[in-house]
Automatic annotation (TrEMBL):
GO terms for molecular function: microtubule binding. This is KTBL1 protein. Residues 5-156 form the Katanin p80 subunit C-terminal domain. Pfam families: Katanin_con80. Keywords: Cytoplasm, Cytoskeleton. The lineage of its organism: Eukaryota, Metazoa, Chordata, Craniata, Vertebrata.
Length: 160
C-alpha cells in the first residue's frame, strides 16, 4: 500500500511537470519569449525554470534578438531562488544564465553613462549588483560552480 501510494504521488508530480513543460514549449516554439517568461514567473515552479533556462541561456550566448533585457529583468527573482537552492544543478543553471546575461549586455551594463537608452538596462544593472551582494559566497564553492561564480563576480566587480 505504501509503495503504491508513493507511486501515485510521483506520477501526479511528473504529470503536472510534463503539462507545465508542454505549455512552456508552446511559447518557445512560437518565439513568444515574453509570454514564456511571464508564464515561468506566474507558475513559480523552479523545476520547470531549471528545464527552460538552459534554452534561454543558449539563445543569449548566441545573441538571438528575441530575448530582451526586460525578459531578463523579469527572470532575475527566479534565478535568485535558483542560486539559493540546495541543489547544485539549480545553482549551476542560475549561474550559467547570469553569466550569459552579463556577457550579452556587457557593453550596455558597463557604459558609464546615466543616459542609458533602455531603462531596463539600468534596472538590470542595479538588480545584478544587489543580487550578487547576497550571493557572492558562491565564489567559495569548489569546482565548476565556484569557477562560474568567480567569472560572474569578476564582471560584476567592474560595474561598481
Amino acid at each position: 500500500t505504501q509503495v503504491s501510494q508513493d507511486h501515485e504521488t510521483m506520477a501526479q508530480v511528473l504529470f503536472s511537470r510534463n503539462l507545465r513543460l508542454n505549455v512552456a514549449l508552446t511559447f518557445w516554439r512560437r518565439r513568444s519569449i515574453s509570454e514564456l517568461v511571464a508564464y515561468l514567473v506566474r507558475i513559480q515552479d523552479l523545476g520547470v525554470v531549471v528545464d527552460c533556462l538552459p534554452m534561454l541561456t543558449n539563445s543569449l550566448q548566441e545573441e538571438k534578438p528575441y530575448i530582451s533585457v526586460g525578459c531578463c529583468v523579469d527572470l532575475l527573482p527566479l534565478v535568485k531562488s535558483l542560486l539559493k537552492s540546495k541543489y547544485e544543478e539549480y545553482v549551476i543553471v542560475g549561474l550559467n544564465w547570469l553569466q550569459a546575461v552579463i556577457k550579452r549586455w556587457w557593453s550596455e551594463l558597463s557604459a558609464h553613462t546615466e543616459k542609458v537608452e533602455d531603462g531596463n538596462v539600468h534596472i538590470l544593472k542595479k538588480q545584478l549588483s544587489g543580487l550578487w551582494e547576497q550571493e557572492n559566497h558562491l565564489t567559495l564553492v569548489p569546482g565548476y560552480t565556484g569557477n562560474i561564480a568567480k567569472d560572474v563576480n569578476a564582471y560584476l566587480l567592474q560595474l561598481h
